[in-house]
Design goal:
Radius of gyration: 19 Å
Order of helices and strands: EEEHEHEEEEEHHEHEEEEEHEHEE
Distance between the termini: 11 Å
Number of helices: 7
Strand content: 25-35%
Helix content: 25-40%
Length: 384
């Protein structure tokens, strides 16, 4: 079962979700920390750290269970060293994702974290931006942070940079004796100017996928393509990646709901609406960025953010049901807004849908200008 909670600590709002088994033992834990006042970034990070320490103390969580931390920054180039200093102060390693997507609440940083309770002892390892951890039952999680073109400059376009980062990904995974097709579970593709550069990213990704036999007849990868900046001035595209090694293909399902949303290749893009993965007794669902789209691939309710939010949630509900889940199995949301002034409207609709769900709200235009809001998320349940 999924247990949701909310608490106030150190001038922050914390929301969390526990996945627990029938005996009450926790398996997976997500949490968001949102500061409630604007501070200089160093002070804001101290506030987040203090709140996180209070959360772990209150819920009796061990620090070494942390696997993922995703920070959303209002000015990453100027905040970058503060986030790295935070990492150095921690007693355990984790996947550190840093994105400039300004919090719509106008603070300088937000945190989305994930903990796992089945990490094998001494299994956390890191080489540069590649972090790995082993969990039961025999699964290696391969996280790749901030994958970008190391020689990006003002003359290298988004299409060229996309080809380079996927080649880098291919080489990294080869070092683990696996491939993009066989192991990549989830990608987040960011572009500082998504309106202008997304078509080039789509073109390059489609050609790369065709070359490695990722097609509509095989499968794609759960993904979000969204506006976001890295700490590198000329990176026109960068990517975070979550791969799994040790999963039997029969335990992976690719979720389609054509009566609600057409297959993505119908309008020229190449990602899965959602991917379900069974890991031992736990069934996980990874929901790609989902917007107000219909079965023909058309944008519904142009200009009406409230109706677009409701339709996006309707589409997510369809994905959940098709995958064998319900909204009570949701563990977190990531909500992207083209116009941050829509925050209160969107948050109200989402709170009605699932109260107290850990959620991050960021100022981040979606890959099609007519979409005013996009939502991604995860869900999980125990198979008794």
């Amino acid at each position: 079962m999924m247990e949701l909670g909310c608490l106030k600590a150190c001038d922050t709002e914390i929301k969390y979700s526990f996945l627990k088994d029938g005996k009450g033992k926790w398996i997976q834990f997500f949490y968001t920390i949102r500061p409630e006042k604007i501070e200089q970034i160093a002070h804001q990070m101290h506030t987040i750290e203090s709140a996180e320490a209070e959360l772990f103390k209150t819920l009796n969580l061990a620090r070494d269970t942390v696997v993922v931390k995703r920070f959303f920054s209002s000015d990453l180039i100027n905040h970058y060293d503060v986030f790295l200093d935070h990492k150095k102060r921690q007693s355990t390693d984790f996947f550190l994702s840093l994105i400039e997507q300004p919090p719509v609440s106008r603070v300088k940083a937000l945190l989305l974290g994930m903990c796992l309770n089945n990490i094998l002892p001494d299994s956390k390892n890191r080489t540069n931006n590649v972090f790995t951890v082993d969990t039961t039952p025999g699964i290696k999680h391969i996280f790749i942070e901030n994958l970008l073109d190391p020689e990006a400059d003002q003359d290298r376009n988004a299409e060229e940079q996309t080809r380079i980062i996927f080649k880098l990904l291919e080489n990294i995974l080869a070092g683990f004796d696996t491939t993009i097709k066989d192991s990549v579970l989830r990608t987040w593709i960011y572009a500082p100017n998504v309106d202008a550069d997304y078509p080039e990213i789509v073109k390059a990704r489609k050609e790369i996928f065709n070359a490695i036999n990722l097609t509509k007849d095989t499968h794609y990868i759960a993904s979000t393509g969204i506006q976001g900046k890295s700490s590198k001035q000329f990176a026109r595209v960068f990517m975070d990646v979550w791969s799994l090694k040790g999963i039997d293909g029969k335990n992976v399902r690719y979720i389609q709901v054509p009566e609600y949303m057409c297959p993505t290749d119908n309008y020229g893009v190449t990602f899965e609406r959602a991917t379900a993965v069974r890991m031992g007794r736990i069934d996980h669902l990874f929901i790609s960025g989902t917007a107000s789209i219909d079965k023909h691939g058309d944008i519904l309710y142009p200009g009406d953010v409230e109706k677009q939010t409701r339709r996006a949630l309707e589409n997510i509900s369809a994905v959940l049901i098709e995958g064998g889940f319900s909204k009570n199995d949701l563990s977190n949301f990531m909500v992207y807004l083209r116009d941050p002034s829509d925050y209160e409207i969107v948050k109200s609709v989402i709170d009605q849908y699932c109260e107290n769900l850990p959620a991050i709200y960021a100022d981040a235009p979606v890959c099609r200008p007519g979409w005013l809001v996009e939502i991604e998320g995860t869900a999980a349940k125990v198979i008794e």
